């Protein structure tokens, strides 16, 4: 039996044990709310803008009180970020981590619907080489703080990575993590498996196209439904979009790193710039609208990737606003769906109906396990973003007394066989 066949069997076995998909009142699509600008609207006005595109999840890059309060009692799920600069302090002092959670998380509950804490952003590939060693200790301390406060089943701890953590990345079935990062990545994967938190990745098909526009088909990068599929010669899987290929590359890398339990991959950032410098191929408003429109449609289907079709794709678009103070090329300041004055940066032409979104996991983290190896690669998928996450899927017994009564009646009538309590996605 080939290594890939063994991987698929292990994957299918895990998915059979995973909870079934169910409807959710919250869209599987989220959006990153970065604030690296001096002309952005006040946080109080932001929830209204978010609602106009039907997005039910928002990722913050810090724990700004005004931003968190703005989303209180809106039902919009939040990812709250811990900035890179805070990692050393919280990694070295569990008491500081507990104090941080009390002040920046617990103080806003239950009005604010906080589902994730993201510890830093792209720390493992940061230019600050002293920072990575603080990542896991900070995550452990924050998770312990949540546990001590009884919040660990409500709020998960994770971090967002650049695709530059991959050494081998193409074709997806040969993907592996960079060898120099494995001593850091493997303990992180153990943390995710133990706590049930997902592995967040910042994935940008745009960067693959911008680096090699003659070698990467534009339709394939833009998630166009009619794009010519690319076949992974090793697995035989067909990829109709580059984003799917990037995500599956991460799944294969996780397996190659020896993860023994399922770790779900979620996209904490992805987007397309609406403007760029002369040498930034494809950075146009038309392409940005096409990519984000196709992305929203793709995720709204509630399907997975070719490798893990039963694990619904969960994505945070980048970004809500154009941010005029971001450094770098012109494209960096033009990822927003909205301009700073709140008007659309371009006509998206699509709005999510998050009241009917499907595919949310019924409880617990879902993913896969296995083994893989191979060669080939590039680091051009990475981006340094100033503002990244996603949602935490957890189990709880019943939503309210009415739901409990309905469940009880179904059992008594013999119309529903239930082996465990129903998990409700946030």
Can you give the mean pLDDT? 81
> Which bin fits the share of residues in helices?
25-40%
Assign the structural class, choosing from mainly alpha, mainly beta, alpha/beta, alpha+beta, or little secondary structure.
alpha/beta
Order of helices and strands: HEEHEHEHHEHEEEHEHHEEHEHEEH
Question: Uncertain runs with pLDDT below 50, 5 residues or more?
Answer: 1-26, 355-426
How many strands? 14
**Shape from CA axes?**
globular
- Termini Cα gap: 40 Å
What is the count of DSSP helices, taking H or I runs of 4+ residues?
A: 12
Major sheet summary line: 8 strands, parallel, barrel
Describe the structure.
The protein is of the alpha/beta class. It has 12 helices and 14 strands. The strands form 4 sheets. It has an 8-stranded parallel β-barrel with strand order 2-3-4-5-6-9-12-13, surrounded by 4 helices. Helix 5 (94-104) crosses helix 6 (135-148). The model is unreliable at 1-26 and 355-426 (pLDDT under 50). It holds the Pfam family Glyco_hydro_17. One of its GO terms (biological process) is carbohydrate metabolic process. Belongs to the glycosyl hydrolase 17 family.
Topology (elements, then pairings):
Layout: H1 3-17, E1 21-22, E2 29-33, H2 46-52, E3 57-60, H3 65-70, E4 77-82, H4 87-92, H5 94-104, E5 113-121, H6 135-148, E6 156-162, E7 166-168, E8 176-177, H7 182-195, E9 199-202, H8 205-211, H9 218-221, E10 230-231, E11 238-239, H10 242-256, E12 265-270, H11 285-300, E13 315-317, E14 360-361, H12 401-413
Parallel strand pairs: 2-3, 2-13, 3-4, 4-5, 5-6, 6-9, 9-12, 12-13
Antiparallel strand pairs: 1-14, 7-8, 10-11
Helix pairs in contact: 5-6
Transmembrane segments: 401-424
Pfam families: Glyco_hydro_17
Organism: Phoenix dactylifera
């Amino acid at each position: 039996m080939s290594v890939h066949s063994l991987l698929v069997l292990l994957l299918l076995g895990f998915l059979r044990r995973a909870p079934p998909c169910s409807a959710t009142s919250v869209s599987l699509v989220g959006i990153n709310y970065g604030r690296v600008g001096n002309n952005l609207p006040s946080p109080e006005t932001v929830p209204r803008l978010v609602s106009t595109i039907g997005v039910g999840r928002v990722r913050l890059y810090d724990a700004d009180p005004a931003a968190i309060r703005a989303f209180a009692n809106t039902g919009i799920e939040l990812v709250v970020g811990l900035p890179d600069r805070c990692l050393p302090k919280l990694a070295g002092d569990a008491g500081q981590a507990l104090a941080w959670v009390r002040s920046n998380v617990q103080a806003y509950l239950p009005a604010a619907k906080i589902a994730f804490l993201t510890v830093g952003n792209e720390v493992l590939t940061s230019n600050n080489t002293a920072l990575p060693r603080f990542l896991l200790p900070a995550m452990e301390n924050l998770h312990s703080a949540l546990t001590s406060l009884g919040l660990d089943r409500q709020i998960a701890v994770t971090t967002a990575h650049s695709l530059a953590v991959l050494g081998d990345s193409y074709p997806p079935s040969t993907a592996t993590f960079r060898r120099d990062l494995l001593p850091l990545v493997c303990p992180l994967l153990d943390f995710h498996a133990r706590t049930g938190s997902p592995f967040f990745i910042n994935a940008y098909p745009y960067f693959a196209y911008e680096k090699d526009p003659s070698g990467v088909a534009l339709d394939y990068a833009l998630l166009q439904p009619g794009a010519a599929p690319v076949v992974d010669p090793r697995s035989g899987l067909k990829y109709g979009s580059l984003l799917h290929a990037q995500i599956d590359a991460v799944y294969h890398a996780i397996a190659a790193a020896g993860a023994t339990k399922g770790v779900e991959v979620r996209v904490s950032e992805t987007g397309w710039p609406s403007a760029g410098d002369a040498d930034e191929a494809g950075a146009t408003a038309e392409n940005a609208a096409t990519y984000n429109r196709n992305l929203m449609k793709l995720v709204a289907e509630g399907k997975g990737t070719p490798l893990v079709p039963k694990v619904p794709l969960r994505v945070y678009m980048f970004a809500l606003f154009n941010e005029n103070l971001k450094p770098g090329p012109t494209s960096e300041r033009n990822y927003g769906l909205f301009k700073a004055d709140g008007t659309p940066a371009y006509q998206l032409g699509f709005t999510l109906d998050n009241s009917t979104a499907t595919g949310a996991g019924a409880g617990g983290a879902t993913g896969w396990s296995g083994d893989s190896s191979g060669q080939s690669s590039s680091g051009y998928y990475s981006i340094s973003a100033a503002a990244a996450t996603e949602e935490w899927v957890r189990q709880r017994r019943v939503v309210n007394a009415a739901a409990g009564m309905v469940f009880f009646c179904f059992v008594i009538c013999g119309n529903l066989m239930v082996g465990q309590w129903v998990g409700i996605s946030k």
